[in-house]
Amino acid sequence: MMREEIVFGPIHSRRLGASLGINILPEKGKLCNFDCIYCECGWNSEGRGDRKIPSAADLREALEKKLSSCKDAGTPIDSITFSGDGEPTLNPDFPEMIDITLSLRDIYYPSAKVSVLSNATLIKREEVFEALGKVDNPILKLDASSDAQAEIINRPAHSYHVEDVVRSLERFEGNFILQTMFLRSPDFDSASMIKDWMEIVRKLRPREIMVYTIDRETPMKGLGKYTPEEMKQLVQPLIDEGFMIQIKG
Known about the structure:
eight-stranded mixed beta sheet, 7 helices
């Protein structure tokens, strides 16, 4: 499902409520350094070739127009969410765009949260790390507990090491939300990684964990989802230890 606008919605998010989406990637394509087997936007190769990305000025114009019209209409917004068709931190204007969004949020919807859905691959860059530190909800993905599992699930475009990402995530000192997809495929079952994944969680101690499963059509066929009850059973040791875990089927 491609988003062909810089600002779209609000839509109902099963994790964030009434969410106004921000797509700072190509409006008629997909740009990501992952090619996840479950991505609702499809395979990277199906991205239709558009590589034109919005500028900070483009975002300011589109977001202010949308926030103003939503406020005039009395439309509720719980979260202003950077998601879109790929990895938002790939946009070179990402840090400036965060500042623009925060300032416009404060004017039009001061009670709304600013959220970023990211695969955490670029948080090693200081400017990206600092920008994510400013938002209310830095929601950072870690689907695998080993490089081999990441190759199956996320299919990274370049060298990717779980250990490096964990090291970068430690810099947040727990002030982030960890997001993990649970799924079944012919080559992988999330239950098989649960022990190692929980050890990573204990090391990072994120303020919240979002565990979810497939909700829409996936580019790889034959994937299986988990029920909320199954996911709860898998993460129950962490719940017992006091971790805040949001489970969405």
